[in-house]
Design brief:
- This protein is mostly helical.
- The protein has helices spanning 2-24, 30-54, 58-62, 65-89, 94-105, 109-121, 126-152, 160-168, 171-184, 191-201, 204-219, 225-248, 253-264, 270-277, 282-308.
- Helix 11 packs across helix 15 (282-308) and helix 13 (253-264) runs antiparallel to helix 15 (282-308).
- The termini are close together.
- The model has no long low-confidence stretch (mean pLDDT 84).
- Keywords: Cell membrane, Membrane, Transmembrane, Transmembrane helix, Transport.
- InterPro entries: Mem_transp_PIN-like.
- Pfam families: Mem_trans (PF03547).
Amino acid sequence: MIDLIIPALLPIVVTLLLGFIAGWHHDFDAGQGAVLNRMVMLYALPLTLFAGMMGLSRSVLLAQGVIAVILLAGMVGGYLLVFLLVRYLFRQKPGLAALLALSVSGPAVPFVGVPVLGHLYGTISTIPIALCSIIMNLFQVPLTILILSSADTEKKDDSFLQHIVHTLKEPVVWAPVLALILLLCNLHIPAAFRSALQLLGGTTGGVALFASGVILYSYHVVFNRTVILSIVAKNILLPLLIMALAIWLHTDRQTLSLSVISMAIPTASVCVILAVQYKTAGQEIASILFFSTLFSILTMGGLLYYLAG
């Protein structure tokens, strides 16, 4: 099983390493990494989400009940649980709590789901990739942006409605919402136009990971209690909880495996993008991304070995 995991995760590790080397070689600095992140957030990521979702059919979207419930429980329930624990038990600021919640409950499926899940499961992997992308970009990312922008604003009298409006103006939020509305109305864009959007959108994963590598060098990786607890929760505890839920729901073996491995995918680089953009815990979030990816070779390999048995 390790022979399956390594080829699937090797592109992620290599791209992160190339960004790290570029930072070490002074080809890029943290400011330039932030510019690359801005391009991803404003253009590349919204385009890849919109084009990818418009490639689905409405029937496929509406037919995936069980796996949708499991992934919703893991990504939405996991986000809320981690946020509440960090905010009220560990008494951390809302912005940090939101970023840690996203780091733990947000797998990098929109960025690296195709090489990882596609390599392991083939065409059936389209379903969890689409579902995770929708959940992340219709719930997790908007809520994280809302909390970060609320903490970041200089006007303390801004209303909650104003923060929602600010969040909805972000392309990474309204682009997948628009795609979802069009899909539910059974409307599609021409394939040639969707292909044109994917040219820039296809750079999302590589550029985001490369920029994350640059930022990793700039911030210097740390291995403190926050990072350790986040990695244990992300790579081990949450996938095991999802496995227990899937077994309790009596799912078939394929749904069980797809759900567990989807949630075991490493932390999404969008966490680092947001941490840099809002100047909140950049070093810790970048370190979680790095070590989550590194240790996922062992944790995902162990989960696959167990599920295969």
